[in-house]
């Protein structure tokens, strides 16, 4: 399906794995030139080269720091000579911890990558995007922004801040820049599968292993679709909102969550 983004430029953060990786892949398939940013340079370059994504430029940066965000944006602007047509703020990370387990430093680390990376990148790029007269931002938040859980209190708070700021930016930069948020539910990404990831935590919580632990979580959360989502399913929503096919959508929040959030967004 062609969404009208052929020839456009896109800037994607958190691009090495999971949702960001699939966003980059779909944008490239639609004919966009993509500037893909991540701290994991080896993983980023491996799949870009391995999949022969010729329209993708990689950039390694630590987006948990102000210098990393500003430096990556400055590199893009110097190379492109203009703002991107599309900005996807996807970078983020979370850990399952209870409120009393969180120290000030934990809150700071969570907000630096999950909220301030979006805020800093947006501040560097959106004013330049507004000069184009027609651009789009998609911020990848979480269903936890609307349905908090005890073990994700810092992550949920950061994602709620992202959603609120997305709506403010939509009002501030309309009509030149559309700004929307996508809120995934449980999605099978390396955040779950990596050593020390969410899977290990839920295995302990439910005293089950592997698929049995995942199913226990699905049952406990009452996910109507009866499964976890895939990164590509989220990426399709992101690319749609970034495209001219969504030209009258701004300030909106799209849940890609299998039905986990049953209240109004």
Explain briefly what this protein structure is.
The chain is an alpha/beta fold. Helix content is 46%, strand content 14%. It has a 7-stranded parallel β-sheet, sandwiched between helices.
Describe this structure in words.
By secondary structure, the chain is of the alpha/beta class. It is built from 9 helices and 7 strands. It has a 7-stranded parallel sheet, with helices on both faces. Strand 5, helix 5 and strand 6 form a beta-alpha-beta unit. The chain is globular, with a radius of gyration of 18 Å. The two termini are 28 Å apart. 45% of the residues are buried. The model has no long low-confidence stretch (mean pLDDT 93).
Throw out a few tags for this protein:
7-stranded parallel beta sheet; 265 residues; alpha/beta; 7 strands; globular
Strand order in the sheet with the most strands = 3-2-1-4-5-6-7
Quickly give the structural class: alpha/beta
> What is the β-strand count?
7
Low-confidence stretches: none
What is the ordering of alpha helices and beta strands? EHEHEHEHEHEHHHHE
Beginning-to-end CA distance, first to last residue: 28 Å
Specify the biggest β-sheet.
7 strands, parallel
Question: How is the topology of this model organized?
Answer:
Elements: E1 9-13, H1 18-29, E2 33-38, H2 41-50, E3 56-60, H3 66-80, E4 86-89, H4 104-130, E5 135-140, H5 153-173, E6 177-184, H6 190-193, H7 198-206, H8 210-221, H9 231-242, E7 253-256
Parallel strand pairs: 1-2, 1-4, 2-3, 4-5, 5-6, 6-7
